[in-house]
UniProtKB/TrEMBL annotation:
<dbReference type="Pfam" id="PF13361">
    <property type="entry name" value="UvrD_C"/>
</dbReference>
<feature type="binding site">
    <location>
        <begin position="27"/>
        <end position="34"/>
    </location>
    <ligand>
        <name>ATP</name>
    </ligand>
</feature>
<keyword id="KW-0547">Nucleotide-binding</keyword>
<dbReference type="Pfam" id="PF00580">
    <property type="entry name" value="UvrD-helicase"/>
</dbReference>
<dbReference type="GO" id="GO:0043138">
    <property type="term" value="F:3'-5' DNA helicase activity"/>
</dbReference>
<keyword id="KW-0378">Hydrolase</keyword>
<feature type="domain" description="UvrD-like helicase C-terminal">
    <location>
        <begin position="286"/>
        <end position="584"/>
    </location>
</feature>
<dbReference type="InterPro" id="IPR027417">
    <property type="entry name" value="P-loop_NTPase"/>
</dbReference>
<dbReference type="GO" id="GO:0005829">
    <property type="term" value="C:cytosol"/>
</dbReference>
<dbReference type="GO" id="GO:0000725">
    <property type="term" value="P:recombinational repair"/>
</dbReference>
<keyword id="KW-0238">DNA-binding</keyword>
<keyword id="KW-0347">Helicase</keyword>
<feature type="region of interest" description="Disordered">
    <location>
        <begin position="664"/>
        <end position="736"/>
    </location>
</feature>
<keyword id="KW-0067">ATP-binding</keyword>
<dbReference type="InterPro" id="IPR013986">
    <property type="entry name" value="DExx_box_DNA_helicase_dom_sf"/>
</dbReference>
<dbReference type="InterPro" id="IPR014017">
    <property type="entry name" value="DNA_helicase_UvrD-like_C"/>
</dbReference>
<protein>
    <recommendedName>
        <fullName>DNA 3'-5' helicase</fullName>
        <ecNumber>5.6.2.4</ecNumber>
    </recommendedName>
</protein>
Amino acid sequence: MPVDIATLNGPQAEAVQCTEGPLLVLAGAGSGKTRVLTYRIAHLVEDLDVAPWEILAITFTNKAAAEMRERLQGIIGPRCRGMWVSTFHSMCVRMLRADAERLGFSKSFTIYDADDQKRLYKEIMAELDIDPKRFPVNALMGRISQAKNELIVPGDFEKQAIDPVGKVAARIYTRLQERLRAANAFDFDDLLVYAYLLLKNHPDVLEAYQERFRYIMVDEYQDTNHAQYAITGLLAQKYKNIMVVGDDDQSIYSWRGADIRNILEFEQDYPNCHTVKLEQNYRSVGNVLAAANAVIANNQHRKAKKLFTSAEDGEKIHVYMATDERDEGRWIAGEIEKRRSAGMSYNQIAVFYRTNAQSRMLEDMLLRAGVPYRIVGGTKFFDRAEIRDVMAYLTLVVNPSDDIAAKRVINVPRRGIGKTTIERIEQFAREMGMTFMQGAELVVLDPELRASTRRAVGEFVELIKEAQEYSGELRRVVEMIVDRAGLISALTNENTDEARGRIENIQEFMGVVDEFSQTHEEDDAEFAAPTEGDAVAGDAEPVRVLRGDSLADFIEWVRLRTDLDTMGEDGKAVTLMTVHSSKGLEFDCVFTAGMEETLFPHMNSVNDAAGIEEERRLAYVAITRARKVLYLTCAQQRQIFGQTSANPVSRFIHEIPAELRQTSGLGSAGFSGTGWEKRGSRRGIAGSGTEAGGGRVFGRSSASGSAGRGDRDRAGRSGHTGSSVHGSGGYVNPKAGKKEAAGVTFSVGDAVDHKTFGRGKVVKVDGDTLHIRFAKTGQTKKLLKDYAPIVKI
Ligand code: ATP
Ligand code: MG
């Protein structure tokens, strides 16, 4: 069935139909760039008989890749399976899995994430006697990461390093690459570097990919870094059928090495390039678009763009001036409930913030109001210690040379292998030129070690070896590790709330394993050889089957899950995320919290013009995510980063013409004393906003806790342990008057209804804490009676 070009406007259709030669689509937010890219793929496959596996589509996040694949599935059906629709990093992993040997690595390499990497840095710094107080590890990591993104190898880096930090970084960089190689591991940046080297230094590999990917498309091209630019350049060199889409106004990753010049100079890189501009915005109502246009117009360094919409004006931009961050969060929760009562789905609502540190308070307030939310970023499920332990075990099964993983878990759970033994193994391995695991295997024979220690090390080595035999059977090997290593039983013995939370997380992990197994079957098709219908005469073996055993695939899948991927479609919930992660997405209703100077724009950027321009682009991204309603909130004073600060309203709010704004809260008096005085009695109104939606009264007390947070964790998000208590204890609200607590008393046996967990029964009352067993899950949860969204029934 031909692709329906009629649903596109003129320039969009032109871009879709321009299939040969280089093509640049440079256009503002919401103008349909991603849609054009998707339609163009469909057009190639459906109307021009291009084989799906000849197409390479690169997106910025895994989430965007999944969405694009879904949209393609909708237009062209299962034929999209052989296509590579992925992020740069995923693409590089696939390339390296196929040819790692060419670079002296084995196919079973590990990918180090930030945490692994930090451990390695610390080890190297200790080894080289570098003082982390003088040279903070984050600064060094940043420096080296930047070099990698610019494809600067250690030798050149050393030559260029003139300042003290640079010189120290140069020493570390050299050692880091040795250590990574010895561990058969890549860090995130290495994936790009080595994929580039593979293509650059192995002409046969490059040619195979050039022949394969006749059509290359890159979304969000304005945020590519030099390494990504170079890889794309190599792949497109031969046929030059490359389409890039982007918006210079949305370049927001320069701190991670993204180079806006990549898009601005595309026309120079490909002189016969065709350029299409899109000017109609289909996403947002008039007022939102006008606000976005007004803000971005303040940037000096940009290509001027026009963007219009034929949509109605919609509501004005809601600006709320809160007294503090709690008031802000509470008000947002109330507005969310109002929108929800008016028929908007939670899924269509998002709350953005500039820094991750803001999320905790927002979460707290949503939790109290019983607003379901999912958080993108922050401390993720996969970052929790117990999950990292299981992952380290699994990694070790696949790649026994991964010393970092081995050292992480050799004594987890505690089995009497102390620091001295570990150092002994390490030293022995170093002397013998072995991996840590090989060293451990031999140390077992060392008569100087205690028999019990030898036994413990022996059992550990044995467990890993045995698990290796089953590495093709994912679930079995995970169960085996969890059982045999005694991870759960050790936690059970601890018998604390925290340990129970950890057990739940490990159990949740089994759910992740199952989720992978289910989606993996589908994924497989993507890697399999093309079906007959897709085959093109003359091309032998055009698709490599890259998937190895399923444990290795699983680990890779977990490692590549970026923040955005924790955003499941299951269950309706409000999305909380940083502005950075919101790129490319859209929601009916968007809140951006913390619109104050030093927060947004961020204090790190306020002193330099380029920094401010990037912050403004970020504001432009935030505003343009909204389809119908946009809220911007700020607080007169805020506790953040461990201190209280009071800052003026963000310049980005002032840059929105006053007639487009509607202000409430402290009012047009701004953050002046009178406005604040008047606010006192309104607090109750903010509280009752939540009441209106949920029909319940949620209390506030001076000793605050965060009931239900642990439960939230189970829902697959993030964070802190179930028992954590949050710091509103010191909060004094001078105007709030008496406690709004429901004052309802509960006793054992009472039936209750919880907004999220449903029906349950009180099984124990412990002061303010209720122990409630919920019918649906059979689990007992501890909830604070004045906070939890519960009613007695
Ligand atoms: P961003 O810069 O934020 O990534 P974008 O330019 O990629 O935005 P899209 O996400 O492709 O924009 O499109 C924005 C919205 O407009 C989507 O909901 C899309 O379906 C819709 N849209 C785009 N073009 C049209 C069209 N011709 N007719 C109807 N809707 C359209
Ligand atoms: Mg887009």
